[in-house]
Each structure stands twice: as structure tokens, then as C-alpha cells.
Design goal:
alpha/beta; Rossmann fold; 7 helices; 3 strands; 12% strand
Length: 130
């Protein structure tokens, strides 16, 4: 309901067009799925989702509300399965190398745990692996 209130595609603008959606991340997939459903309702010809981060595969214990790996769409589906689940015509992620290279020499200052399970400060409760 919150997505519907916030986003309201206009049929006259969307109908018959190829749409590219860009989002910073794809965590659970619920919002993207709803947005894509709305665009299908107004008859978008194609919907392509571009994500400006790598797939979020592991929980973040350092401030983002993703405590359970089972909640993360990329931990449950590969790219094709995720694409099918959300209903997009294509789905593309930025690679981890691509993301880190965008920081121009400061890439060692950023946490990548949610992408590669490299928890610098360790995991809560002594959990060692997934």
C-alpha cells in the first residue's frame, strides 16, 4: 500500500515504452516487485532493473535492518530467479569490483560484509559461517 501511495505511474507516459529502473540496492525484492507490477498494469512494453550495488547476500549487523539471511532475495535466488520473482525483463547488478573501483583509492574504507560475508568486526553471537 505504501508503494502505491508513493508511486503512481501515468499510463499515457508509460504505455508501450521500454522502462529502465535504477535502484541503489535490491534487498528483499518486495518494493521492486510492487513497482514492476504497477508498471505492468499501465502496460510498459519492457521493464529493466539496474542495481547500483552487488547482490546483498548476507545480513548486515552494523546498522541496516537485514538480520536474517532468509529475508534476502539474492541469498535465495540467483539473478535469473530473482528477475523472474520480481517480474522484470532483465536484472543487472554492479559487481563488487565495480563498486569498490568507484571509490578511487578509498575502497579499503568501506564495509562489504553484506556482499561477501567479510565481517571485519565479526558476527554477533560468534556465528562463523553461512
Amino acid at each position: 500500500m505504501a508503494v502505491r501511495l508513493k508511486l503512481n505511474p501515468i499510463r499515457e507516459i508509460v504505455e508501450g515504452r521500454k522502462i529502465i529502473l535504477v535502484d541503489d540496492s535490491l534487498v528483499r525484492g518486495t518494493t521492486s516487485k510492487k513497482i514492476i507490477e504497477l508498471l505492468h498494469k499501465v502496460k510498459a512494453a519492457e521493464i529493466h532493473l539496474l542495481i547500483t550495488s552487488p547482490p546483498v547476500l548476507y545480513p548486515c549487523y552494523y546498522g541496516v535492518d537485514t538480520s536474517e539471511r532468509e529475508e534476502l532475495i539474492a541469498a535465495s535466488y540467483d539473478v535469473e530467479g530473482t528477475r523472474q520473482y520480481i517480474g522484470a525483463d532483465s536484472l543487472h547488478y554492479l559487481s563488487l569490483d565495480g563498486l569498490l573501483n568507484s571509490f578511487q583509492g578509498a575502497k579499503d574504507r568501506f564495509c562489504t560484509a553484506c556482499f561477501n560475508a567479510n565481517y571485519i568486526a565479526g558476527k554477533p553471537g560468534g556465528q562463523e559461517s553461512y
